[in-house]
Amino acid sequence: MFKMLTENWTLKIISLILALLLWMFIMGERRLEVGYRVPLELQNIPQSLMVANEVPSMVDVRVSGPRTLQMKVSPNDISIIVDLTDLKPGLTTFKRLEERLNLPSGLRVTRLSPSFIDLKLERIKQKRVPIKIALIGEPLSGFEVASIKAVPDEVIIEGAETELKSVSEVTTEDVDLNGVNEGFSLIVPLVHRGTYTHFKDEKTTEVQVDIQTVISTADEIETVEPQPNQQIPEGGN
User: What kind and span of H or E run contains 22?
Assistant: First the structure.
């Protein structure tokens, strides 16, 4: 038995090695399908234009190919690049995103979601709008607001031209007057709930409040001194 095992041992070892190599080759060439979350990158947005619609930042991709190639792919090295050079204002549809995927040759995209994107570019404009002061609460009893103002009382909003047309004012965060009995000034953040518009520079304003004592009606009536009794002339009624 031992003689049979040791007979032609060189050929048997070579056969074993060849069988192992063949098995490794077959396993290496077995096709796999792998899923990735791929970033979508917008490049070269024209000056004075901006993206004014929702665009996905990630794309789901399934890639099929030989196992040996799949093992060489790093998720950090895959991306979809959309070049916006020379694009004009308006809506543009980018189809066949898989062709923009930087994959090694030999791999094939079997599924991509979304498979296309709609991109809306708008001109960037500016608009100066008034600041509205938001008040809550009431001063202490016997006191009232004499005057209130914001410094500055206007602010510049910048962003997509279409949305900017609907912006008529911005507001402050709430200024609390509860229990106040004297004037004060306060730096208050501004509030603007724009989607494609934002504050260009200033995001706060100084609110100046002047408080005065309430003057009652009784205080305003002048006291009339009594006059000496006057005699009624003869013949009078």
Answer: helix 9-28
